[in-house]
Specification:
The chain is mostly helical. It is 75% helix and 0% strand. The longest helix is centred in the C-terminal third of the chain and has 32 residues. The mean pLDDT is 75.
Length: 72
């Protein structure tokens, strides 16, 4: 993972942007100040779960692609 630090940093950034974008569609209603969840705990748990899913999917995709290029 050290060799692909930049790639995983970009993957984390894309996961965070994607989580912020998806948050708008999963929230029940806008509470105020940009929060779409009734309490902070729900916000953190939902964002963390979405972020982890996006991060692992993008990481797996990157590893599959990078290993495919290394074999050729």
């Amino acid at each position: 993972m050290k060799g692909n630090f930049l790639a995983f940093s970009l993957i984390a950034l894309v996961a965070e942007v994607g989580t912020s974008w998806l948050q708008k569609f999963q929230g029940a209603r806008e509470v105020g100040g940009g929060l779409f969840y009734p309490d902070v705990a729900t916000l953190i748990v939902n964002r963390l779960i979405i972020w982890l899913v996006l991060f692992f999917l993008l990481s797996a995709l990157w590893l599959l692609i990078s290993r495919g290029y290394n074999k050729t």
